[in-house]
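All the exercises in this workshop are built on plain-text protein records. A learned vocabulary of local backbone shapes supplies the integers on the structure line. Once this layout is familiar, the rest of the handout is easier to follow. An example says more than a description, so a record of this kind follows:
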Amino acid sequence: MKQVFYSKIQTTMDLLDSISNQTDVALSLTKHLLSKEAADKNLVFSPLSLHVVLSIIAAGSKGPTLDQLLSFLRSKSTDHLNSFASQLVAVVLSDAAPAGGPRLSFADGVWVDQSLSLLPSFTQLVNADYKATLASVDFQTRAVEVANEVNSWAEKETDGLVKELLPPGSVDGSTRLIFANALYFKGAWNEKFDASITEDYDFHLLTGSSVKVPFMTSKKKQFIKALDGFKVLGLPYQQGEDKRQFTMYFFLPDAKDGLSALAEKLASESGFLEHKLPNEKVEVGDFRIPKFKISFGFEASNVLKELGVVLPFSVGGLTEMVDSPVGQNLCVSNIFHKSFIEVNEEGTEAAAATAGIILLRSSQLPTKIDFVADHPFLFLIREDLTGTVLFIGQVLDPRSE
């Protein structure tokens, strides 16, 4: 059945268009996060995770609120969003480990105050298309316990990597709805690095100083592309018998302080990734990538408001969720995201109630290409067959989590 679904997905231009739009949204969100939430720190988040949570909210909206969400998500209708989510969950995000590929886990949760009952149509949708866990809870007198329950759920779904998704005090007696998504990814490199030759080198910080960190290296040919002002490296994960191919891409600016210009470029060109990713292996000269580990969390409502998604956070638009006149007074209180990623010689482990990206550096094409990620870069993890971006992030200092 999955195989049939897969061949269907490859020929569905509609789905590929949706993924391309979702990637454009992801990159514009990344640019915003880099400048506002993570101007001076490492970042990892899952644009896909946020996209799915917003799609669930859109499914319960109507009128101008719905229009605003559809416009932001670059989608034609809620039907379109829901079928996109259901195909993603069934195909792109199903666990690849049984076939020898990366381990993947993707889960949605919706917590609703017990004073409200969801409309059957919304319940059906959230269950069928989003495979979400639905819980009726008592926010009014047991807010702290509910927050703990959501946190336990996120921790379990991300194999213990995302802890305390909801910070203390973020849920109180006025909360009525919480939407959460958890994404976990663990992939082994197709060609692992030899840990015995990992060595400390200087990594240049944006402040102008440098720090010693462990760098992985290899003499094997690599997927590298040198472009104008930056280079891109692709490190594929073991694929197994699955058609899907997950790859981590590093975007390295040539200039030591070229990260913000590169992020700007990434976000401003529609379809940017399609033409920039390397597709052939080249001989490498000097090749070094730092090991790193990042944990990052943020509350998404302010970022979304600045990007024009305002109405879901005010009353009046979320009328397709609950079976009660109270629905007129509902609004989303918070959307929390938290992600974790670790990159080492074996591969990558990443998780989210959010997710992550990576960047690189370029020069004239010599016979061998150097790729030395010794200054701030961006990264992303992508499924190449469909183009779905799971995580995006930046590394400013490989020492800090």
Notes: Residues 195-290+356-395 form a domain with the Alpha-1-antitrypsin; domain 1 fold (CATH 2.30.39.10). The longest strand covers residues 177-188. The mean pLDDT is 84. The CA atoms of residues 296 and 339 lie 5 Å apart.
